[in-house]
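User: Is it possible to get a 3D structure for a protein together with its bound compound? The compound here is S-adenosylmethionine. I've pasted both below.
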Amino acid sequence: MTSAEFIHRPVMFEEVMGVFTPLEAGVIVDGTLGAGGHSQGLLERGPQRRVLGLDRDPSAVEAASGRLSRYSERFIALHKEFDDLDGALAQACQSDNRFCGSPVGLLLDLGVSSPQLERGERGFSYRLEGPLDMRMDPTRGQTLAEVLDQVDLDELTSLLRMNGEPRFAYRIAKAIMAGMPYSSTTQLAEVVKSAIPAAARRTGGHPATRVFQALRIKVNNELEKLETALGKAFKLLLPGGRIAVLSYHSGEDSIVKSLFREQVTGGCTCPSRYGCVCGAVPKASYVIRSKAPSAGEIEENPRARSARLRAIEILEVDDSSDGAGNG
Ligand SMILES: C[S@@+](CC[C@H](N)C(=O)[O-])C[C@H]1O[C@@H](n2cnc3c(N)ncnc32)[C@H](O)[C@@H]1O
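Assistant: Yes, that's possible. Here is the predicted structure of the complex:
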């Protein structure tokens, strides 16, 4: 796919750019490069910035590299997963010493890109015929077919329940197991649909939307990777550095919310009416606690509708006082 064909409209573009405005120079990591829309904005609006773009999908890396080739002086794209943030930074530093040292920013725009969803052969879409794949990185890991082959009914029920299909998880899981093996995504989608009571089928969107999302999250280990990446970013970013995360699913948003809160409160668990009396030291402050896209953006780009943007700034912490009053 050429960069002209690989099109994804960046979500909450102005809001994301706004988070990074104070960071005029330094390395910003775009951990979810996709088609490169956010990276392009970061490069255009910060002539002193360097951007390291990562994606686990080689076709995204290729397309974004082509699109952003005019910035090759200060842009590097790597086929890497964002939970390997430290490894990616080391690799970028090795290839260009202007990328050495601690980064000042990290952007994660989670989930899948439009080109991934719109190509049936990738197996993400319940509408387009394709194989049971769903791997964002088609060069490694287990396909959806392999995952389904290994899970039992209890595991499948709980992964559907936890990742977006709380109501009919058991019925759907049972129907999926009974219908194995599948020759295509559309066949799987039909089985999911028929497992849902007729009355419930008439409300909301296609029931396979939530089920396919839950399966995709499992196939790609999305929640574990998000936790690892944020844990590393809290340690790696310079004081004054900023982290912005766009999530599209309550499971990922609640991870971001709770990890950000832990940084902002310093892990203080005192009841809020007393203020913090345990001596916990905040390690970050909120830049954006939680923001949804405008109604206008959702109308123009319906894929933005479930987006939530959260952002924090890393604070300078005097290590000698860290946790002094704890216990
Ligand atoms: C919503 S798209 C990003 C779109 C991008 N912001 C733009 O403006 O075009 C998400 C991208 O993140 C990638 N991705 C998801 N999880 C990843 C991970 N753990 N490591 C690296 N890339 C990941 C996907 O392959 C996909 O290309």
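The first strand starts at residue 25 and ends at 30. The mean pLDDT is 93.
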